[in-house]
Amino acid sequence: HDLVLVARREDRLQELAAELRGAHEVTVLVHPADLRERAAREALLGGVADAGRHVAGLANNAGYGSSGRAWELDLENELAEVALNVEALHHLTLAVVPEMVRRGTGAVLNVASIAAFQPTPGTATYGATKAFVQSFSEALHAELAGTGVSVTTLCPGPVDTEWRGVAGIPEGQMPGFLDVSAEEVAEQAVRAMVAGRRSVVPGTPNALVTL
After folding, report:
1. Active site residues per annotation
2. Is the N or the C terminus of the chain less surrounded, counting Cβ atoms within 10 Å?
3. Please, which pLDDT band fits residue 13 given cuts at 50, 70 and 90?
């Protein structure tokens, strides 16, 4: 598949795009955007349409967390967290699914978390956003039965990425036995998306935690 890469930092997108073009001989469009802003999301969707392309698969991976007692955290950052983790995912999913249904094929991958399965004191806003993602995505998956379109919910546990630093999670706070590599999470996610599965939880310990 050709790709459209979306994130805030264009330099990283361009580096990844060059790598993907060289390795797979595909067209890779780079679209830097802050998806917390509705206007930016509208511009993204318009840009894809103007390029004469349709969305065969959508991966909603943008998101971040925060840690601490919710009422003591910066309010604007908490509101922006909801805008990115919830509003952007909701908007982009519902913007592309109707055309997928008309074509009779398509897949969406929405990134939730094992934090979606219970309230999470200390990361209250983050856990609540991921509970929305899980509930919305699994319900939409059921609504799409028979259309040829699927929504897969990815619920990873701890992954060694920049997420922990952004969220302010202290080193060693999360048990190491739950860790799954970013590469393994991505591979399981894409396989589940292509197969049209409802959900995937990478790592046996994480799957047990969700119970």
Report:
1. 126
2. C
3. very high
CA distance 2 to 29: 8
**Between the CA of residue 89 and those of 50, 95, 120, what are the distances in Å?**
21, 10, 21
Each residue of 136-188: pLDDT tens digit? 999 999 999 999 999 999 999 876 665 555 656 666 555 555 677 889 999 99
Write the DSSP string, 103-155: HT-EEEEEE--GGGGS--TTSHHHHHHHHHHHHHHHHHHHHTTTTTEEEEEE-
Single-letter amino acid code for the residue at 72: E
* 208 phi/psi in degrees, rounded to 5: -70, -35
Query: What CA–CA distance (Å, rounded) separates 66 from 171?
Result: 14
